[in-house]
Amino acid sequence: MIRILSFFQEGCMACHEQEPINREVEKALSVHIEPVNPLMERSFIEKYSLRVTPTTLILKDGHVVERFEGVVHREQLEDAIKKYL
Question: What superfamily in CATH does domain 2-82 come from?
């Protein structure tokens, strides 16, 4: 079982760029990418050592197996997710 988290902040231009990419990947792979505002859920900042937004994490069995900081392109994100489906 995988879980995909996409950390964002309001007003972050790169986060706004990542959002439509995430929707395309969700549709193409029939997965759910969870949007998380770490400023609203601060426990995530320490738990995942967040430094920048956007940050996208792929977790398998609760462990981070892929980490992308900054905008991740559709093809790269899809390839990473497919490895764990």
Answer: Glutaredoxin (3.40.30.10)
